[in-house]
Amino acid sequence: MILLTGGTGFVGGHLVDELLKDSLKIRCLVRDPEKAARLAGAGCELVRGDILDPASILNAITPEIDTVIHLVGILAESKGSTFRSVHAEGTRNVVASCIVKGVKKFLHMSALGTRSGARSEYHKTKWEAEETVRASGLDYTIFRPSVIFGPGDAFTNVFARIMRFSPVVFIPGDGKSMMQPVFVKDVVRAFAGALKSPPASGRVYELAGPDTYTFDSIIDRIAFVLGKKRYKVHIPMSVMRLNAAVAEKILTKPPVSRDALIMLEEDNVTKRRDLEDAFGIRPTLFIDGMRSYLG
Asked: Are 201 and 67 in contact (CB under 8 A)?
């Protein structure tokens, strides 16, 4: 049986669907079972808990749990939910519970760009989480996906909503940073493949789409799939950082953070072809993937 954290999230929902195809038994650790009715309806067992509450994790890992998949992560901080608490402390709690309970296999969601000495707090704390996993002695697999797109994402869908009503799209910076968007269905197939493939053990895999794009060209492709002509207006990063600093002080959930702007200034690409080479998955083209849910 599998214990899944982050099952109510974007990737988690798609992963549940993928794993249930193989009739696998899934237990989801959720903070509010009433808000996870979709998972229960799909056939998952729900257990109330929080990765910041070690006792609840220990309670969820009963003897029939042989695998834990840890997806929980945040893209922006809010009051009471910081990158350090969720990524670093939360992962330490989950890993420690797995060690105590003798879990056989541990799959961990990280992010492309995670590295020692990263500039953003997001990547710094993701690196701390990875280091915890690597030092655990567990039979682990770590995944580092590039920006993930697909039905229900908070990336292409956000810009699509803007484009449906506005003739103008505002772009932070010069729009030249490079990305390698990866389709969510390819990501969850890799997770499912790692459950079956012994060579996946003790490895870090970078998951990315087949092509690299500038941020500007990503916006152009979203508009193309929607069949709309939209104008891009670039906002200098100095102005964006100032606005983000003000928003962080006065808003509970600012639309963009200074940490996110740091990541937008960096390329998020890889030369590795782990989807194909390790899992035999042919990465979905960006436009083809978007057409399946936006077109």
From this structure: no
Predicted model pTM: 0.95
Model confidence pLDDT, tens digit, residues 16-57: 999 999 999 999 999 999 999 999 999 999 999 999 999 999
One of 3.40.640.10, 3.40.50.720, 1.20.1290.10, 3.90.650.10 is the CATH number of 2-148+183-208+269-281, namely 3.40.50.720
Tell me the two tokens of residue 154: 């908070």
pLDDT at 209 over 90: yes
What would the two tokens of residue 22 be? 């193989």
DSSP strand pairing (178-179 vs 213-214): antiparallel
263 Cβ neighbours under 8 A, 6+ residues apart: 113, 120, 122, 123
Angle at CA of residue 247, ends 241 and 250, nearest 5° = 150
| Residue whose structure tokens are 């214990």 | 3
The single residue listed with the structure tokens 């940490």 is: 259
